[in-house]
Amino acid sequence: MADVVPLTDAHCDALLRFFAELPEGDRTFIREDVTDPDVVRGWAAGSPGVDRWVAVDDGDRVLGYVAVLRLPGWSDHVGELRLVVAPAARGSGLGRELARHAMVQALEAGLTKLVVEVVTDQGSALALFTGLGFTGEALLVDHIRDRDGQLRDLMVLAHHVGATWAGMSAVG
Predict the structure, then answer these.
(1) What is the rounded distance in angstroms from the CA atom of residue 52 to the CA atom of residue 74?
(2) CA–CA separation, 121 and 171 (whole Å)
């Protein structure tokens, strides 16, 4: 299995390779241009309210990426979770491990709610997040355009981590 570690400068080249090797369809649903070295180096440099981790194997190859971005202003108790797993590692539990890691770190950072955006036809991603306790909060119809110009629906899922963890702690 992979080790989940904070993203540093030392991971930039491996993370760029990871994103370059993703199928084009996967990169369609990532907001940033993850093939741009300046974007990835900027991530590694860090910014307030953003935490990023990578899952690396023994050879320092990146198998997954997860981030929690704290929302600004009156939503500063909410974090947006972003998750990408290499196709070869899907179905291995790595996505669940990365998502859980991000959830624990978000809770420790004082966030009480996490949201994730998932394209509605990404059934395995929906199953992963609902299995972790995320529930639907919004369906945004024709909200994103894929690289072929097709409009796609986007689901916003949420997890009230503060309430869930408080309840778990109360019952032991």
Answers:
(1) 22
(2) 36
